[in-house]
Design a protein that fits this description.
- The chain is rod-shaped.
- A hairpin with a 5-residue loop joins strand 1 and strand 2.
- It has a domain of 73 residues: Nucleotidyltransferase, domain 5 (2-Layer Sandwich).
- It contains four helices and five strands.
- The protein is of the alpha/beta class and 141 residues long.
Length: 141
Amino acid sequence: MKKKKEVEFNAPITEINVTPLVDVCLVLVIIFLSLAPAIYLSGITVTRAKTAMAEASQTATEVKVNVFLRGDGRIMLNEEAVNENRLDKLISELLLRSPTKTVTVSADRNVKHQKVVWVLDLARQNGAINLCVLKRRSAEP
């Protein structure tokens, strides 16, 4: 019987194995495609306000729902201090009388975003159709 010829591999491997790289890239694409709708639908859509001339009849009958969160923890609803427990009921009462069902929320600089999102969620649960986040200029530098 003949002996098999032994092959020596002394030369370095100069080829790059691309298969694992392609596998990882495809898995990442599948993950991003499956999570994209969930990320998009879980957020709150915010649009910039457009300035327009309001008619005199609209300004007279419009019921405003303005919520301002102060840095010391107080909640102001239409320039009046309100307890957190009563805010739910008062927003729903004001929205019943509002034809546009718009809620405007603004806050001091040191108020946590969690509190602002809580108020936006509360307004949406009570029937608000339009949610506005107002940026106020403060006297602080």
